[in-house]
Structure formats: C-alpha cells, structure tokens
Amino acid sequence: MGEGDAESPPAAEKKGVEEEDDDFGYRLFPDRNKKPQSFLVRSLFTFHNKCQLMLRLTLETNPYAQLLLEALKQSGCTVFNDRHFSCENCDGCVGGGFDAATSQIVLCQNNIRQQSHMNRVVTHELIHAFDHCRAHVDWFKNVKHLACSEIRAANLSGDCTLMNEIARFKFGLKGHHQTCVRERAIRSILAVRKVSKETAEKAVDEVFDACFNDLEPFGRIPHSKADAKRAYRDFQNRDRYTANL
C-alpha cells in the first residue's frame, strides 16, 4: 500500500494452507501503487476537488475530527492536511483506509459523495491514526491488534448511531450498539485481511470487552454530534486542568 517510493508493508506471515499470501487490503486502493499525479491533472477531476473541499470542511467544523486532531497533536503526532490525507480512487464500496506504512489516511473520492459520509470516514480513520500514534500496533501480523482498533473505530466514530443503523434497515433495542460494533469490526477485518470469518470473529470476541470500553480520547461514546461537541469541550477542559497542576 506504499505510494511512490514509500516503504512497502512487510510480507504476510505464513499460516499454512488456510490462507494465501495476504495483500493487507491494498487491492482496494489501486492508486496507492501509482505515481502521484500533478496538481493540474488531479484538478481536472471533479471527484478530487469535491473530496478536498469536503475534507477541509470536516477538519474545520466536525467535533469528532477536531477532538481527534487535538488528541493526536498532544500525543506528538500532529496531522497535516497535505501530508496525512490523500483523496484517491478506490475499488468496491470502501470509503477509506489507514495506511500504516506511510501514516496516511486514504479517502475514496469516487465512493464518498456526501458530507456526512466524509465526516464518518475521516473520524473512523483518525481513530486508527490515534491508535497508531499512542500504541505499538502490529497492523500486519497481529489480527487482535487490528480487531481492537476496528472495534474502537466502529464504537467511537458514529458508524453505529441509531440513524445510521436505520438507514441500513437494521433495528434493535437492548445491546444493539454493541452488536453493530462487533459486526462492523468483523466486516472491516475481512475487507483488509485474507483470514476466515471464524478467525475474524474469534479475534474480535477475544478483545471486545477491553477495546469497547477504551473510550480515549473521547471519554464517552459520542452517539451524536452534540455528544461529540460535549466530549470535545471536556477534552479541552481536561487539558487546561492538567496544565495548571
């Protein structure tokens, strides 16, 4: 998934006859293996321009993204728009991805058409970036590490809000949020790793409780934009209190 002359991810670990060599989901992001296009060429494509405009609006106005950007900065991993985000064409229905080899977030300009979708994708991938910054995540060889970050991303990004689930024609009452988080984490693993569904389910189940209850840097599950705004204010106040100690 390395772009240009960036270092490629390590080769897949041999796992017997159960799995063939894993491409770590890079097949979904074909532009990762192409040489970067000139600004003039990219400007001719409205998908790219629209993606850049929606990204800027998300980073400037969305409280989920704003909190994560500040948390990343405080953790020593300042995010720069031109360096850490890339609007590209992707395969399938994938909305985005986090390229751990380059510490870059890929936004699928041909699949993201609405601002609300951009908000969720950016937030989801920024959670992966935050996990990459604060912990020694073995994205390529340890499926439990991947499962943990996917659980956190599904739980905290707004992927499983009531309105999003209704839009997917999925309804439930008690425990539905947890069910949604588990299903989306498994789905994400299967999209980027050549593992069996049983392997993905086992990895998610083994780390689910610990990772579902890890709410950093939000401190709560933000079920709505209003929740995210409150979490952002609390995060800023927490920083001010710590600075005065």
UniProtKB/TrEMBL annotation:
The gene is Atp23. InterPro entries: Peptidase_M76_ATP23. This is Mitochondrial inner membrane protease ATP23. It comes from the Eukaryota. Keywords: Hydrolase, Metal-binding, Metalloprotease, Protease. One of its GO terms (cellular component) is mitochondrion. Transmembrane segments: none annotated. It holds the Pfam family Peptidase_M76. Belongs to the peptidase M76 family. It is an enzyme of class 3 (hydrolase). Residues 1-28 are annotated as: Disordered. GO terms for molecular function: metal ion binding; metalloendopeptidase activity. Its EC number is 3.4.24.-. GO terms for biological process: mitochondrial protein processing; mitochondrial proton-transporting ATP synthase complex assembly.
